[in-house]
Amino acid sequence: MSAIKISNIQKIIIILSLFIIFCHTVPGLAAHRKLDLVVNDQVAISDLGLVTAEDDLLLPVTDLQEYFDVEVEWQEVIKTARIKMDDQVIKLRAGESRAQIGDKMQQLDQAIQLKNDQLLVPVDFIAQVLGYQVEHDNQQLHFYKPSSRVQDINYQNKQSDEMLKIKTSEQPEYEIKSLTAPDRLVIDIFDAQLKEQISNLAINNGIVYQVRNGQFKPGVVRIVLDLYQPLDYSTEVVKQQDGYQLLVKMSPKVTNFAYDNQEERFALTATDEISDYQVEFDSKSDQYIVEIPGMLLDVVEEEFVIDNQLVEQVNLSQIQRNGTSVVRAKFEMKKWFEMDVKSDSKNPNRLILTPQRLVELVDIDYNSSTAEIKISTKHPVEPRVVPLEKGDRLIVDFPETIFREINQQLKIEDDLIEEIRTAQFHKDIARTVIDLEELVDYELKSSSSGESYQTIIKLERPGDTATESVASSSEGKEDKDKSKENKDNQEELSSDKRVEKVDIISQTGETKLQVNLNSESNYKVRKFNYPDRLVIDIPGAAGYIKPDKIAQPQGVIKDVRVSQFSRQPLMARVVFELPYDMDYQVSSNDQTSQIELKLTDDSPELELTGKKIVVDAGHGGADPGAIGINGIREKDVNLGVAQELVALLKEAGAEVKVTRSKDRYITLWSRANMANEFDSDIFVSIHANAHQDDDASGTETFVYPDSYGDTLVLAKTVQDNLQQKIGLDNRGVRFDELYVLEKAVMPSILVEVAFLTNSQGESLLRETEFRKKAAEGIYKGIVAFFNRQAKEDR
Amino acid sequence: MLHKKGIIDNLVLAGISLVVISVLIMTVIGFPQQSEEVKLYFSTNQGQNLDYELRAIKSQKLYRNIIQELIAGPTESDLGKTIPQGAKLLSWQLQDQVLVLNFNEKLRSNHWGGSTGEIMTIYSIVNTMTQLSQVKAVRFKIEGQRVESLIGHLDLSDSLQFNEDLVKYKID
């Protein structure tokens, strides 16, 4: 040790400090004690002069040389003891509450004291540096060495079998504590000592971010796992050739959560078999909760917003319950569903969760006398009914419904129905097809009885008097024959009860319908779809009425008709055509001479806000489309109608995209692709038709083969509204493999407004007024479609 | 060796002469004209349906003959033509029961247009061809090129099969 030159200023500082130390130490409430130092049960130093300060014992550091292999060098000038042991140098300076070990500083519980030329150092610190544990009683101070060494710590960071391995020389005694804020796992190995410095381990695997270690206190090696979240683990001690291994095994983790768009299902993947799980439905929060106990969560994202029609979003979390970790997945419902949870048959580490709305269709029954088809399901279901003129059929689609029998056929062959077929049309749509003798009106009702729900389709027999009728069905057949005889017996009818006046009082948001009779009568009000209309039947009344007594269509009412619906029994019918399925209330008494109805227009017609619509004007550029008999080009007609339609849709608040706004060529693929990329709600392609013969005429709307549900409803409402508006022949909804309809993924239709290859059609399509009218018809159909959809969603 | 080769040469020569002579004789007498009865589908009911008339078609180059007959048009008054003037079948091939028909550009450029028009043209050909037991489906090419569509409506990117809907609902 070379001498240190000390400047005057330093001298003053040293003197000052010594003075302070002196003042501090001398009056210290130090008590002297003499104890034997016992090392590993053998007396090493007798009558060691110790000093107690507060709760700590201090011992004279120079005396240690008597027994221990240490070298203490006292440097008087700086009042510092320099202790050499093994490879370490420890510096202790009188008056300081810290020690320097190598080049690191360590805080001490008590200040180092200088007393009677003895440097007194806290016993705990000395024991620590010497690698002993300390205990003392009144006679003895015990120093003893831990019997075990912690030789190595490593982390096996594998997807499965993730564990911490602690290698010890002796069988380890240990304690593991889970601490929170921040989350960490503390492993104390008692009666042990780190063999050598073991570096901390950076893990960063989503569960553990690092593993630290240290000699917590003499005889206790502490290993700390800093965690991202509470950990679930199990331990095991393995005997090895050269010692022991303490294994802290991490519980299996859920490492992946994914939604499969195609299959419309979720999958949870873990590092081990998922055999234990619970599925629970929380009706308060409308959530399905799936819990997997004994698992950790190692999925970065916690919240999943999913494009699924049943699930709004999914939240993943790891919770602690009864000391174990539980992975919890919460599925927030959009609509009611049942969660089908099962293990992947190919991979037991994977759990497959499929939200299903599978309603079971259990029975189909037909009552010929009431003309009611009753279809029973196990849950409430909203069927869609689409009448098809082609083939005189009613198609009844039950969404999210399974029909276990797969196929069933009911041969009926009465005056209304030929046959009723039910089949699993699609993986989750059951379809009932009612083959009719001829297309008739129908009423859709639903009811429930005990465990099942019924959808009732009541077909309307021509001359049916519904519930008011007292005549049985057998009498009804006779009546039919009689009615032929009575056909032109007008005078007799007009002498009876009759409809005198029909009024429409239209106000904002409300329309009042009023039917005046010449005498009090009962009546029945019903609502029909396709087209949407309200029907008032007045039994025993004549339908003869002067046209000027019927109000002109106004407000939401598109048309009013009064007719003699049947003669035997006598019944008058008043029909109000509605723009879409509207709610109504009857405000008059059951028996009245003035029938009053209120229509509440809660879904105003100008409401397409938020709806995304792609309007495709067919052909363009190098592709002129069809050429009219007098030379007009289809591409120009299509663009004209499309532009009118776009204006109407935009006015109603829809978000509209056009595939072309001018005369340019676009491939069919890009047209459909634009709609797909826009994530449009519907795709409407506008065309004008052509045929080799000039005899072809009329309006038709195409859908892709096997379309169902929304697509079919859209096609139907647009075709009906357009055809009614422009009044050309109704060629109906047709199913063909049209390119754009196949490629566009949303409900998609292609409208052929009229034929350019007949002179009437061409001259009409030439007129701007007609194009406007056609656009209005299509627009009304689109509005009706969205209104119906909104209603069904409610 | 040389001697032997001479004999083989003579034999080959004799064989060829025999074939040539028989072909000459056959030409003079005429080949037995094989033909089969085929349903030719044409447009009906304002282009909403297809209906057929029966016609005997020569079996040799059957597909080309059928197309020619379709181009020639129907004889019955309630049926309508489906293929535009100038259209010609350039080549055809049958692969795995898919008949690939390669037409000239006129099938497209001379077409009158319309979804109805296109459906009638394509399906009169498809339905006529797929009635043959060896043809399951038909694919179209124009001047050797595969096409999205003929005139902008029907998807022709894949092969098409017999369309029952077009013939099923007859409105009489």
What does this structure look like?
The complex is a heterodimer of chains A (794) and B (172). Chain A is an alpha+beta fold and 794 residues long. Chain A contains ten helices and 57 strands. In chain A, the strands form eleven sheets. A seven-stranded mixed β-sheet of chain A has the order 9-10-3-2-1-12-11. In chain A, strands 53-52-54-57-55-56 form a six-stranded mixed β-sheet, sandwiched between helices. Chain A is elongated. The radius of gyration of chain B is 22 Å and the shape is elongated. In chain B, helix 2 (62-72) runs antiparallel to helix 4. By secondary structure, chain B is of the alpha+beta class. The model of chain B has no long low-confidence stretch (mean pLDDT 85). Chain B contains five helices and six strands, in the order αββαββααββα. In chain B, the strands form two sheets. Chain B has a four-stranded mixed β-sheet. Chain B is 37% helix and 24% strand. At the A-B interface, strand 54, strand 56, helix 8 and strand 57 of A face helix 4 of B.
Fill in the keyword field for this structure:
A: 794 residues; alpha+beta; seven-stranded mixed β-sheet; six-stranded mixed β-sheet; 16% helix; elongated; B: 172 residues; four-stranded mixed β-sheet; 37% helix; 24% strand
- Quickly count the helices of chain B: 5
Rounded to an integer in angstroms, the radius of gyration calculated over CA atoms of chain B is 22 Å
Total strands of chain A: the figure is 57
The first-to-last residue Cα distance of chain A is: 92 Å
**Terminus-to-terminus distance of chain B:** 80 Å
Number of helices of chain A: 10
Low-confidence stretches of chain A: 23-28, 464-495
- Structural class computed from helices and strand pairing of chain A: alpha+beta
Q: How much helical structure, as a percent, in the residues of chain A?
A: 10-25%
Class from helix and strand fractions of chain B: alpha+beta
**Estimated share of beta-strand residues of chain A:** over 45%
